[in-house]
Amino acid sequence: MRHAEEVMGTVVSFDVRAGKIGTPALRAALDSACAGLHEADARFSTWKRDSEVSRLRRGELDPRMVSHDLDEVLRLCADARDRSGGWFDPWRLPGGVDPTGLVKGWAAERALERLREAGVSGAMINAGGDVAAFGEPEAGRCWRIGIRDPRSATDLLTVVELHGALATSGTYERGPHVLDPHTGQPARGLVSASVVGPSLAFADALATGLLASGEPALDPASSIDGYDALLVMREDGTVL
After folding, report:
1. How do residues 30-79 score in pLDDT, each as one tens digit?
2. Could you tell me the residue ranges of all domains in the chain?
3. Structural contact between residues 221 and 229, judged by C-beta atoms closer than 8 angstroms
4. Stated pTM of the model
5. Beta-strand (E) ranges in the chain?
6. Can you give the pLDDT at residue 8?
7. Which CATH superfamily does the domain covering 2-233 fall into?
8. What is the CB neighbour count within 10 angstroms for residue 42?
């Protein structure tokens, strides 16, 4: 079963293999997964004035009194900041802490886990270019995800046989929208950064940090076990 949900400022698509569960149970599992995405949007959006993150950014919420979910996300953000060499740093963005660069992957992972817990045999989620999967699309096959060439709307750089998560951050659709945390200016060194690894939340954060750095974050990122990156340089299209 396939489904597309508009949420978190993007379209999140699902491709689910029911396995032994029936259609009503599958539909209920998808409804639960989508509800989790909307819950995350309501809590973490920096555009919704009444969200928990917006209230924290305005100083209306004691950082010691945040919800369990926000506390978890902020702890993951701090870990990603440290392990990216400071290139992913939600605390150095204008307006206060902004976990946007990690929370979409985090929310997508949790939605996928709801499907797993419901008993589906396999599923893939694509949250605006952040992809995670488990199981098989068909017996003996793995999920295969194409990484787009940012210089062409129709060409691929490579295809990944996905056994975990893939996150891509790029400028080819929205322009330079990721800020260098050290200068506060839009990062312009890369056209795209893709990261594969076991955690979509962490891959999402690393891809954002790599795009922000332009390349310097590649050294600290390359030392993280289980994660690999593919970068496309802006000036000449060099792939690293």
Report:
1. 999 999 999 999 999 999 999 999 999 999 999 999 999 999 999 999 99
2. 2-233
3. yes
4. 0.92
5. 2-7, 10-17, 122-127, 130-134, 143-148, 156-162, 165-170, 190-197, 228-233
6. 94
7. ApbE-like domains (3.10.520.10)
8. 14
